[in-house]
């Protein structure tokens, strides 16, 4: 790795610990929180390409799609009401993530996951039985509240529970469950669209109760994290939990450092206000820029609207849904690559390789669509080879995202925050993610209508910018214990100047205090 973004690889603190069956099962169950997010991303694009759904709730879009097949294909789905149906969820997730920060800090990670599952269940039920647009949108808002709570608590839970040597792989279990949720939704859309009578969309939307039940029931059996228990004054319980998840009797060194970190965090009376302090600038850059860039890769354009997009570029309804299944399968397989490589190759390598691959694919897809559709959006007959080329490069693009910006966009922010600002900073991370997910979902169909094939070049520009940002400003965080992460910033060529003497001394004192406790 180039020196501009790396850190010295000298010895850091290494806490003993094993990847026990207990911690593995615990992390798998917690990661199921990603299913609700993924299922929703996959299902919403599918139902909005189903004719019976459009005819019942969005008749103007249905007429635009069928009345004149020779009109501009770029604009056939352009409807503010339709995009509000999709994007209202993410606005709700933004608002709920702010409340979820308080719940996660005061009551623990586990209750936040439980509440997320219950809210998502209620939203899925309302959508499945919807009779009017307002019921759809209220249901989507409830789904959004559930996602806000789950996305706030699950990444923190995984980062705090996993042994540091396996933290990357176990945390990416969250992204893997998102991709599995997307794939399952795409497969169900494909089969439900074939149901005679045109009510298959109800099964697609109502099916969200299944991942909601998995998260709700699973969270009832999960232990809370040692960090959270210490934060709430339950030190004896925390030590027992730490022994169990590490598979060791002697966890004094890690436990004492966690206690010291908690004591330091309690001296911070206003974590939200403290986020603005100079010493937290590196953390805030990660909390805001990574989720911002993650959404401007353009991935949600593909995942939200894949059936709509494929239908627009000449696939029939069933063919467009099957193409979404293919991209969903690629998404899952590529995420497994990330699980294998994140703690072996490092975060920076995956970010940089994935960025370069996405950039090339977006330019090629823009060229393909521009060559056949031009400016007027009327392509005439589309040959089979053309469709195959477009799907191929979209799949290569999805693979690049799935082993880089997809999982790392959640992993890296959740592992770099010190305990005293962790819940508040994670809330900022989720909020920024949801703001730009909402914005992209709300304006995509309108942008497709006006920018046409240039939309892919728009996203390609941001992929270039974010890859340059990673190269210069993101240090490597693999194999660094979560409570030792500040050494990464103090060793970085740019961020070191923000790490004040007070900050450094505080950590030194914490470590001295931990050592003193161990010797008592």
UniProtKB/TrEMBL annotation:
Alphabetized, the UniProt keywords read: Membrane, Sugar transport, Symport, Transmembrane, Transmembrane helix, Transport
Q: How does it sit in the membrane?
A: Multi-pass membrane protein
The reply on keyword Membrane is: yes
Localisation per UniProt entry: Membrane
* Domain Major facilitator superfamily (MFS) profile, residue spans: 26-478
The main place the protein resides is membrane
Write out the transmembrane intervals.
21-39, 82-103, 115-135, 141-158, 170-193, 199-222, 284-308, 320-342, 349-373, 385-406, 427-447, 453-474
Entry GO CC: membrane
Q: Which InterPro entries match?
A: MFS_dom (IPR020846), MFS_STP/MST-like_plant (IPR044778), MFS_sugar_transport-like (IPR005828), MFS_trans_sf (IPR036259), STP/PLT_plant (IPR045262), Sugar/inositol_transpt (IPR003663), Sugar_transporter_CS (IPR005829)
Q: CDD domains from the entry? A: MFS_STP
State any single GO MF term: monosaccharide transmembrane transporter activity
Q: In terms of domain of life, where is this protein from?
A: Eukaryota
Asked if Transport is a keyword of the record, the answer is: yes
A Pfam family annotated for this chain is Sugar_tr
- Give the family, as the similarity comment puts it: Belongs to the major facilitator superfamily. Sugar transporter (TC 2.A.1.1) family.
Q: Which PANTHER family match?
A: SOLUTE CARRIER FAMILY 2, FACILITATED GLUCOSE TRANSPORTER (PTHR23500), SUGAR TRANSPORT PROTEIN 1 (PTHR23500:SF574)
- Protein's UniProt name: Major facilitator superfamily (MFS) profile domain-containing protein
């Amino acid at each position: 790795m180039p020196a501009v973004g790396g850190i010295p690889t000298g010895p850091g603190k290494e806490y003993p610990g094993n990847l026990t069956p207990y911690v593995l099962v615990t992390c798998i169950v917690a990661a199921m929180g990603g299913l609700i997010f993924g299922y929703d991303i996959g299902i919403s694009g599918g139902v909005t390409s189903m004719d019976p759904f459009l005819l019942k709730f969005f008749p103007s879009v249905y007429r635009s799609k069928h009345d004149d097949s020779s009109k501009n294909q770029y604009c056939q789905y352009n409807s503010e009401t339709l995009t509000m149906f999709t994007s209202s969820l993410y606005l709700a997730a933004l608002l709920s993530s702010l409340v979820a920060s308080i719940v996660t800090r005061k009551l623990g990670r586990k209750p936040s996951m439980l509440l997320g599952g219950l809210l998502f269940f209620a939203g899925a039920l309302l959508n499945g039985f919807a009779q009017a647009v307002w019921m759809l949108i209220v249901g989507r808002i409830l789904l959004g509240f559930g996602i806000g709570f789950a996305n706030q608590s699950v990444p923190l839970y995984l980062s705090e529970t996993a042994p540091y040597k396996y933290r990357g792989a176990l945390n990416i279990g969250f992204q893997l469950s998102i991709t599995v949720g997307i794939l399952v939704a795409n497969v169900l859309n494909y089969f439900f669209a074939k149901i005679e009578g045109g009510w298959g969309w109800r099964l697609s939307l109502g099916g969200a109760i299944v991942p909601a039940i998995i998260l709700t029931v699973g969270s009832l059996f999960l232990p809370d994290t040692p960090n959270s228990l210490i934060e709430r004054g339950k030190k004896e319980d925390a030590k027992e939990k730490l022994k169990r998840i590490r598979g060791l009797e002697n966890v004094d060194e890690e436990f004492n450092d966690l206690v010291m970190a908690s004591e330091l965090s309690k001296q911070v009376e206003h974590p939200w206000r403290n986020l603005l302090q100079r010493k937290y600038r590196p953390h805030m850059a990660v909390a805001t820029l990574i989720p911002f860039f993650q959404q401007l890769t353009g991935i949600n354009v593909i995942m939200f609207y894949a059936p709509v997009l494929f239908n627009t570029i000449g696939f029939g309804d069933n063919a467009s849904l099957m193409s979404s299944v293919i991209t969903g399968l690629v998404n899952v397989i590529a995420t497994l690559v990330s699980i294998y490589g994140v703690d072996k190759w490092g975060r920076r390598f995956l970010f940089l390789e994935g960025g370069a691959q996405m950039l090339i694919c977006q330019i090629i897809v823009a060229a393909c669509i521009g060559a056949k559709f031009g400016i007027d959006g009327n392509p005439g007959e589309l040959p089979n080879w053309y469709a195959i080329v477009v799907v191929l490069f979209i799949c290569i693009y999805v693979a690049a995202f799935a082993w880089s910006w997809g999982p790392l966009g959640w992993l890296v922010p959740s592992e770099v925050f010190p305990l005293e600002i962790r819940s508040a900073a994670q809330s900022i991370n989720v909020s920024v993610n949801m703001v730009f997910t909402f914005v992209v979902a709300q304006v995509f169909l309108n942008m497709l209508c006006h920018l046409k094939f240039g939309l892919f070049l728009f996203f390609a520009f941001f992929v270039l910018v974010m890859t340059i940002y990673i190269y210069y400003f993101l240090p490597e965080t693999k194999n660094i214990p979560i409570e030792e992460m500040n050494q990464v910033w103090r060793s970085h060529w740019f961020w070191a100047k923000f790490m004040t003497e007070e900050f450094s001394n505080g950590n030194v004192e914490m470590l001295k205090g931990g050592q003193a406790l161990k010797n008592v």
